[in-house]
């Protein structure tokens, strides 16, 4: 698991890869459409996509001669969230406080 998390943070280290992830948040995009958003060569964007794919942050599927990429947001959220929970214990405390102060589903009363 540690190598997997390292791959994710390595993938997030480059601003182009972070921008690709942001671009994919609204749905899948063709590799050419992704590459057109950057002032770098197609092969460079392809390498960035390969890093994201290897880290499990994007998936690809073929549609004829196009390659379509999609975000794997839950993997990103879980990995980053787990890391933040270990280094930011106050977030854990805040979540526990929020849980205790939310209305009970059965009675509608606040449990504290």
TrEMBL record:
<dbReference type="InterPro" id="IPR011991">
    <property type="entry name" value="ArsR-like_HTH"/>
</dbReference>
<keyword id="KW-0238">DNA-binding</keyword>
<dbReference type="InterPro" id="IPR001845">
    <property type="entry name" value="HTH_ArsR_DNA-bd_dom"/>
</dbReference>
<keyword id="KW-0805">Transcription regulation</keyword>
<dbReference type="InterPro" id="IPR036390">
    <property type="entry name" value="WH_DNA-bd_sf"/>
</dbReference>
<feature type="domain" description="HTH arsR-type">
    <location>
        <begin position="1"/>
        <end position="91"/>
    </location>
</feature>
<dbReference type="GO" id="GO:0003677">
    <property type="term" value="F:DNA binding"/>
</dbReference>
<keyword id="KW-0804">Transcription</keyword>
<dbReference type="InterPro" id="IPR036388">
    <property type="entry name" value="WH-like_DNA-bd_sf"/>
</dbReference>
<dbReference type="InterPro" id="IPR051081">
    <property type="entry name" value="HTH_MetalResp_TranReg"/>
</dbReference>
<protein>
    <submittedName>
        <fullName>ArsR family transcriptional regulator</fullName>
    </submittedName>
</protein>
<dbReference type="Pfam" id="PF12840">
    <property type="entry name" value="HTH_20"/>
</dbReference>
<dbReference type="GO" id="GO:0003700">
    <property type="term" value="F:DNA-binding transcription factor activity"/>
</dbReference>
